[in-house]
Structure formats: structure tokens, C-alpha cells
Amino acid sequence: FPPQLFDLSQLVSALYFDTYSTLTKVQRMEWNNRAVSTIHAIFIATLSLYFVFWSDLFTDHEHAGLMTFRSSQLSTFALGVSVGYFVADLGMIFWLYPSLGGVEYVNYIFGSIGDFVDLPRGLEFRIVHHSLAAIAVAYALFTGEGQLYTFMVLISEVTTPEINMRWYLDTAGLKKSTAYLINGVVIFFAWMVSYMIYIHYGIFQKNMTHYWHPSKMKKI
User: Fold this and answer.
1) Does 177 fall in a domain?
2) Which residue segment(s) compose the domain that 93 sits in?
């Protein structure tokens, strides 16, 4: 994943955001890290939506063979970028351990469940999340198997820019602003829509039509 994106984020943020100059070194690193996270999320979510809904790669009338074994240069490239991001972000997390990534990462996903169960700290959860994501996406990348289902899951990356925006607003002291409230509502609906898409389209349409295709994948 190109390290120049971190440098670009630092340059743009210093020029256009007054809050950036008031941050600590660790906060600036997280600021830049979240900027790269947002770029990756927009990139992979856009391509995931394209492959799931608009591309002919995973349609019956354009290609023969099992759905689970189909891939293209573009789909492989997209997954390669995603693996590169997850690995690079894991490296950044370990490099700045335990400063990068807060408990809000868990709160966005689990909400009030944290009031009833003992959840892991946000940083540890982020490490586990990124590790599992990197392994799963890398499997689809290197084997060429299950790429459609991988893109279905990666559609949920549409929520990442809003989660990062919430951190930016909080860091800028705008936690009580209207923008912060609206952003929270957008996060909720983005999660709901992305998972409704996965459940409805992924399970009921693709899996019911091609329910036996995943069984042909390699057992690991």
C-alpha cells in the first residue's frame, strides 16, 4: 500500500485544517492513518458494489463455470490493494502500540452490548479484525476462489468513512455539533443498508441460486 498517501494526508491536513497543528504526534499519526483508511474504504466499497451488482463477471449469461472460481485482473487488483492496506495498517498499529485505535472502534460495532459483556479493548479488537480480514481477502486473492462472496462482505466498508469522520469531529471538539449527530445517523443507516444488501442479495439470491458452488472450494 503506497506510503505516499500518509505523506499526502499530512501535507493536505497541515494546509487546510487548523486543528491538525494542535494535535500531538500520536494524534497526527492516527489522523493520517484514518485518512488512508477512508481512501481505502471508498476504493474497495466502490469496486465491491460494482462487482456484486453491475459487473458481468459473476453473471450466468456471460460466463460459464462455477461462480466461486471466477476472477479477473481488476478483481484481483482490487483485493491486492485491500490486502496491502490491512497489512500496512497492522504494521502501523504494532509500530505505535498501544496508542493507535481507540475503544470507540468496538462501540461503533457492538453499541450498548459493551454495557453487558466484557468486550476486548478497541485496539486489540482492531488487531484481530484486521488480521482476520487480511487472511480472508488474501485467500480470495491468491487462490482466486470466493471472490464474489469476499466483495459482498467488503461492501460493509461503506461505513468506514463515517466512523473516521466521527473521530475527526470528536478530535476537533465538535462532539456536540449537528454534524456529529448527522454523522451518527448516517453510520447507523450505512451499517443497516450494507448488511441488508449482504443478507438479501448474498444469501437469498446468490446462495439460493448457486447454493452448491461454495462446497466446491478448497477445504482449509
Assistant:
1) no
2) 3-155
Burial (CB count within 10 angstroms: exposed 0-12, middle 13-18, buried 19+), residue 21: exposed
DSSP letter string over 138-197? HHHHHH--SHHHHHHHHGGGGGHHHHHHHHHHHHTT-TTSHHHHHHHHHHHHHHHHHHHH
What's the rounded Cα separation, in Å, for the pair 61 and 14?
A: 51
* Number of other CB atoms surrounding residue 43 within 10 Å: 15
> Does the reported pTM lie above 0.90?
no
The whole-angstrom separation of Cα 54 and Cα 157 is 18
The domain total for the chain is: 1
Task: Tell whether 19 is covered by a domain.
Answer: yes
Residue in the structure block whose three cell numbers are 466499497: 45
Check if the beta carbon of residue 122 is closer than 8 Å to that of residue 105: yes
pLDDT digits (tens, 9 = 90+) for 140-168: 999 999 898 899 889 989 999 999 999 99
Exposed, middle or buried, 144 (CB in 10 Å: 0-12/13-18/19+)? middle
Segment 69-89, tens digit of pLDDT: 889 999 999 999 999 999 988
